Amino acid sequence: MGIEKYQDMLYMERPVSKRHTPMSLENRAAQFAPFAALTGYDEAVEETARLTTEKIELSEEKKAELDLALSNLLSVISSSGSARVQVTFFVPDNLKSGGEYVTKGVNVKRVDNIKKVLILEDKSTIDISDILNLEIDLN
Q1: Taking the model in full, what pTM does it have?
Q2: Among residues of the chain, what percentage have pLDDT more than 90?
Protein backbone atom coordinates (compact mmCIF):
# COMPACT_ATOMS: atom_id res chain seq x y z
CA MET A 1 0.00 0.00 0.00
CA GLY A 2 2.04 3.25 0.66
CA ILE A 3 3.40 5.68 -1.91
CA GLU A 4 3.33 3.34 -4.91
CA LYS A 5 -0.42 3.84 -5.19
CA TYR A 6 0.07 7.58 -5.96
CA GLN A 7 3.22 7.49 -8.13
CA ASP A 8 1.29 8.43 -11.27
CA MET A 9 -0.03 11.63 -9.60
CA LEU A 10 3.31 12.96 -8.33
CA TYR A 11 4.47 14.30 -11.68
CA MET A 12 1.17 15.45 -13.19
CA GLU A 13 0.75 19.05 -14.28
CA ARG A 14 -1.50 21.33 -12.27
CA PRO A 15 -5.03 21.38 -13.72
CA VAL A 16 -6.16 24.68 -15.28
CA SER A 17 -9.85 25.57 -15.24
CA LYS A 18 -11.53 26.31 -18.55
CA ARG A 19 -14.24 28.37 -16.82
CA HIS A 20 -12.33 30.47 -14.23
CA THR A 21 -9.33 32.71 -14.73
CA PRO A 22 -6.42 32.04 -12.36
CA MET A 23 -6.41 34.08 -9.13
CA SER A 24 -3.71 36.75 -8.89
CA LEU A 25 -0.83 36.10 -6.48
CA GLU A 26 -1.91 39.13 -4.41
CA ASN A 27 -5.43 37.75 -3.92
CA ARG A 28 -4.09 34.30 -3.12
CA ALA A 29 -1.79 35.79 -0.49
CA ALA A 30 -4.72 37.71 1.06
CA GLN A 31 -6.34 34.40 1.98
CA PHE A 32 -3.50 33.75 4.38
CA ALA A 33 -3.28 37.25 5.88
CA PRO A 34 -3.59 37.53 9.67
CA PHE A 35 -7.14 37.74 10.96
CA ALA A 36 -7.93 40.15 13.81
CA ALA A 37 -10.50 38.14 15.73
CA LEU A 38 -10.47 40.58 18.65
CA THR A 39 -11.47 43.90 17.13
CA GLY A 40 -10.26 46.78 19.31
CA TYR A 41 -7.90 44.60 21.33
CA ASP A 42 -4.77 46.47 20.18
CA GLU A 43 -6.35 49.80 21.14
CA ALA A 44 -7.36 48.45 24.56
CA VAL A 45 -3.82 47.22 25.23
CA GLU A 46 -2.41 50.58 24.12
CA GLU A 47 -4.84 52.45 26.41
CA THR A 48 -3.92 50.24 29.37
CA ALA A 49 -0.22 50.84 28.73
CA ARG A 50 -0.69 54.64 28.62
CA LEU A 51 0.66 56.13 31.82
CA THR A 52 -1.06 58.74 33.94
CA THR A 53 0.15 60.70 36.96
CA GLU A 54 -1.60 61.00 40.30
CA LYS A 55 -2.47 64.49 41.50
CA ILE A 56 0.08 65.86 43.99
CA GLU A 57 -1.18 66.82 47.45
CA LEU A 58 0.31 70.26 48.16
CA SER A 59 2.17 70.99 51.39
CA GLU A 60 1.06 73.90 53.58
CA GLU A 61 4.14 75.85 52.46
CA LYS A 62 3.29 75.34 48.78
CA LYS A 63 -0.35 76.38 49.41
CA ALA A 64 0.88 79.59 51.10
CA GLU A 65 3.19 80.26 48.14
CA LEU A 66 0.30 79.82 45.69
CA ASP A 67 -1.96 82.07 47.81
CA LEU A 68 0.69 84.81 47.61
CA ALA A 69 1.01 84.32 43.83
CA LEU A 70 -2.80 84.54 43.45
CA SER A 71 -2.87 87.70 45.57
CA ASN A 72 -0.17 89.25 43.35
CA LEU A 73 -2.13 88.12 40.28
CA LEU A 74 -5.25 89.88 41.57
CA SER A 75 -3.23 93.10 42.00
CA VAL A 76 -1.88 92.93 38.45
CA ILE A 77 -5.34 92.20 36.99
CA SER A 78 -6.96 95.06 38.93
CA SER A 79 -4.40 97.52 37.58
CA SER A 80 -4.11 96.33 33.97
CA GLY A 81 -7.28 94.30 33.24
CA SER A 82 -5.47 91.00 32.60
CA ALA A 83 -2.18 89.28 33.28
CA ARG A 84 0.09 86.88 31.43
CA VAL A 85 1.08 83.91 33.62
CA GLN A 86 2.99 80.69 33.35
CA VAL A 87 0.82 78.08 35.09
CA THR A 88 1.40 74.38 35.80
CA PHE A 89 -1.84 72.56 36.54
CA PHE A 90 -3.34 69.08 36.74
CA VAL A 91 -5.58 67.87 33.90
CA PRO A 92 -7.62 64.79 34.89
CA ASP A 93 -7.72 61.92 32.39
CA ASN A 94 -11.21 61.23 31.01
CA LEU A 95 -10.60 57.51 30.50
CA LYS A 96 -8.73 56.34 33.59
CA SER A 97 -7.68 57.45 37.05
CA GLY A 98 -5.00 60.10 37.31
CA GLY A 99 -4.07 62.59 34.64
CA GLU A 100 -1.12 64.76 33.68
CA TYR A 101 0.47 68.05 34.64
CA VAL A 102 0.53 70.68 31.90
CA THR A 103 2.49 73.94 31.83
CA LYS A 104 1.06 76.75 29.72
CA GLY A 105 1.53 80.43 29.17
CA VAL A 106 -1.98 81.94 29.43
CA ASN A 107 -3.68 85.32 29.75
CA VAL A 108 -5.81 85.51 32.90
CA LYS A 109 -8.74 87.90 32.70
CA ARG A 110 -10.28 87.27 36.12
CA VAL A 111 -10.00 85.23 39.30
CA ASP A 112 -13.38 83.91 40.47
CA ASN A 113 -13.05 83.40 44.23
CA ILE A 114 -16.55 81.90 44.52
CA LYS A 115 -16.04 79.16 41.91
CA LYS A 116 -12.32 78.99 42.74
CA VAL A 117 -11.16 79.23 39.10
CA LEU A 118 -8.93 81.36 36.91
CA ILE A 119 -10.91 82.71 33.97
CA LEU A 120 -8.73 83.02 30.89
CA GLU A 121 -9.13 85.46 28.00
CA ASP A 122 -10.34 82.61 25.73
CA LYS A 123 -13.15 82.01 28.30
CA SER A 124 -11.70 78.65 29.44
CA THR A 125 -11.05 78.08 33.13
CA ILE A 126 -8.45 76.46 35.36
CA ASP A 127 -9.47 75.20 38.81
CA ILE A 128 -7.33 76.85 41.45
CA SER A 129 -7.20 73.52 43.33
CA ASP A 130 -5.47 71.95 40.28
CA ILE A 131 -2.65 74.54 40.15
CA LEU A 132 0.80 73.31 41.10
CA ASN A 133 2.78 76.44 40.15
CA LEU A 134 1.90 79.99 39.07
CA GLU A 135 4.33 82.66 37.89
CA ILE A 136 3.35 86.09 36.65
CA ASP A 137 5.13 87.28 33.47
CA LEU A 138 6.10 90.89 34.12
CA ASN A 139 7.18 91.58 30.52
Answers
A1: 0.66
A2: 56
